[in-house]
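Q: I'm a student working through a structural biology exercise. My instructor gave each of us a protein and asked us to get a predicted structure, then write a short paragraph describing it. Mine is Methyltransferase domain-containing protein. I'm not confident about reading structure output yet, so if you can add a plain explanation after the C-alpha cells, that would really help. Here is the sequence I was given:
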Amino acid sequence: MDATQWDERYRASAGGVWATQPPAVVREIATPLAPTTAIDIATGDGRTALWLAERGWSCTGLDFSGAGLALAAARPGGDAVRWVQGDVHDWAPESPVDLVVSCYLHLPDAAAVVARIAQWVAPGGTLLVVGHDVENIAAGGHGPSDPAILYTPDLLRGALDDRFRIERCERVTRTSADAELRGGHAHPAIDTVLHAVRVR
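A: Happy to help. First, here is the predicted structure for Methyltransferase domain-containing protein. I'll explain a few features afterward.
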C-alpha cells in the first residue's frame, strides 16, 4: 500500500486502525531502558510513539501517511511527540538516537531498510524491529500475504554489521491478547523480533 491508500484507510477508521498498546515484546524490551531519545518508524496512528513519550522518551514518530499522523497527534499526549511525515528511504534524523523502533514496516527492500535505520542508532543504543514472519501466512495470522515483504530471523540478522550485538532474533507467536489491530484478530500471529545493541 502507498501513502494515499494508507491515508484512505486511516480516514475510514473509527478512531484508529491499530491497537492502543505497542506489541508486548516492544514493551518488554523497552521498559527497562532509561528514557532518552527515540524514533518510532512507521508510527501509523502513534501507539508506540505515544507509549514511549508517556514513559519519558523524547520521541519522533515517522510515517508517510499524513492521515495516520493526524490521528496520532490528536490523541491524548499527542503533543509530547514530534510527528514527522516522511519516507524511511529519504528521511534521516539530524543526529543518532538511543532507541530506534520499527513495528510492522513491510517493504520489498526490507534488509536494506533495516540496515539504513540501524545507522540512526547511537553507540550504546538499541534497535528493535518487529514484523510479520513469513510463517504467518500458513498460520493464518493477520498481515500481508506476500512472502517477498515478510521477515525471517535470517533476513533481519543479516541486515546488521559488526557494529551491533544481537541480543535476540527469533520468531514469536502473538495471541489475541496481544492483537495488532484495534478490535483484535482471531488467529495467533507469528512475528520476527530483532533486538540489537550498537556496540561501536
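A: Here are two points you could use in your paragraph. Residues 3-198 form a domain with the Rossmann fold fold (CATH 3.40.50.150). The chain has a mean pLDDT of 92. It's a good idea to check both against the output above yourself.
Q: Great, thank you!
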